[in-house]
């Protein structure tokens, strides 16, 4: 049962990294749009999907806290400053997008939106890097001190995530009718592919503790780079699909690199947290299966319906959301 819920947790985070990363990419590209009309058009391109994209993080964190309380406690404790930055980024992005249209001078909210997206893109990348690097956990099974945020490999992972979400946002905006963003995608996609390869090489050289499946992780990194290169040559919805896949793959890459471990100790190899040791008790997992599992297909169906209903490009008659 713990393995099933670990797979569910991975799928939820993959959905958020892909769809929430799309929101972050659009927000990061907001400064390059000149004038209020252009900025509003960019935000409204993602308008009908924005809250639906963001809801995946609610489900992911809910499953993390309920099904894997030890993982949540040790990881969030080790990376507390990053977690705070991510929470503040979520608040800033969501508040900025929804309040921007309520003022005649939206410049401050534009800055809030971009800053929030930057905090999220960097923060989630850092958390992935921390999970791959390992945390200072002693034999008592608890983290003592903060995760090694000074590691260049961890920051390289954050940079990779930033470039991925920029490529994702650029592909989406180009598909929704703003061809100027195609030039951003043409630069970001190959740059991201190169950074993915560089990151894989750096992590291989660093040899973090507890990595059980390095070849599988390397293969998934290659697929990520390939998806980005494909996005460079694809157009429309196909390019968006490629960047969505590229944004989602780092989650499963990090998870499978360690499986069946989930969080390694940099101080005591015997203190590594596994899927089974991180999971809640069997009764809790069964209760989740009864109460929460039926909601997941509904969530996915609503998301698919939202993308289908609002699939056409924006034009003058299109209603504004923000």
UniProtKB/TrEMBL annotation:
Keywords: Cell membrane, Membrane, Transmembrane, Transmembrane helix. One of its GO terms (cellular component) is cytochrome complex. The chain crosses the membrane at residues 6-30, 50-69, 75-97, 109-133, 153-175, 187-205, 211-231, 238-259, 287-310. GO terms for molecular function: electron transfer activity; oxidoreductase activity, acting on diphenols and related substances as donors, oxygen as acceptor. One of its GO terms (biological process) is aerobic electron transport chain. It holds the Pfam family Cyt_bd_oxida_II. PANTHER family: CYTOCHROME BD2 SUBUNIT II. Belongs to the cytochrome ubiquinol oxidase subunit 2 family. This is Cytochrome d ubiquinol oxidase subunit II.
């Amino acid at each position: 049962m713990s393995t099933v819920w670990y797979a569910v947790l991975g799928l939820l985070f993959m959905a958020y990294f892909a769809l929430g990363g799309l929101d972050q990419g659009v927000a990061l590209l907001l400064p390059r749009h000149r004038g209020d009309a252009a900025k509003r058009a960019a935000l409204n391109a993602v308008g009908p999907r924005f809250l639906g994209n963001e809801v995946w993080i609610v489900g992911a964190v809910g499953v993390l806290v309920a099904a894997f309380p030890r993982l949540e406690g040790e990881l969030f404790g080790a990376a507390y400053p990053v977690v705070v930055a991510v929470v503040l980024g979520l608040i800033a992005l969501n508040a900025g997008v929804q309040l921007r249209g309520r003022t005649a001078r939206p410049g401050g909210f534009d800055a809030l939106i971009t800053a929030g997206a930057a905090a999220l893109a960097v923060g989630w990348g850092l958390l992935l890097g921390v999970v791959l690097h390992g945390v200072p956990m002693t034999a008592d099974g608890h983290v003592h001190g903060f995760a090694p945020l000074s590691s260049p490999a961890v920051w390289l992972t954050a940079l990779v995530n930033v470039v991925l979400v920029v490529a994702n946002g650029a592909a989406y905006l180009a598909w929704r009718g703003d061809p100027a963003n195609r030039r951003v995608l043409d630069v970001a996609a190959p740059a991201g592919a190169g950074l993915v390869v560089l990151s894989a090489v750096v992590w291989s050289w660093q040899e973090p503790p507890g990595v059980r499946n390095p070849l599988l992780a390397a293969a998934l990194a290659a697929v990520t780079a390939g998806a980005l290169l494909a996005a460079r040559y694809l157009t429309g919805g196909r390019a968006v699909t490629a960047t969505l896949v590229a944004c989602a793959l780092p989650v499963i890459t990090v998870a499978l690199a360690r499986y069946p471990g989930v969080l390694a100790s940099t101080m005591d190899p015997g203190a590594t947290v596994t899927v089974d040791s991180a999971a809640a008790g069997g009764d809790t997992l069964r209760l989740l299966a009864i109460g929460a599992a039926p909601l997941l297909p509904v969530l996915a169906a609503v998301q698919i319906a939202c993308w289908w209903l609002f699939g056409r490009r924006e034009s003058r008659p299109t209603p504004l959301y923000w």
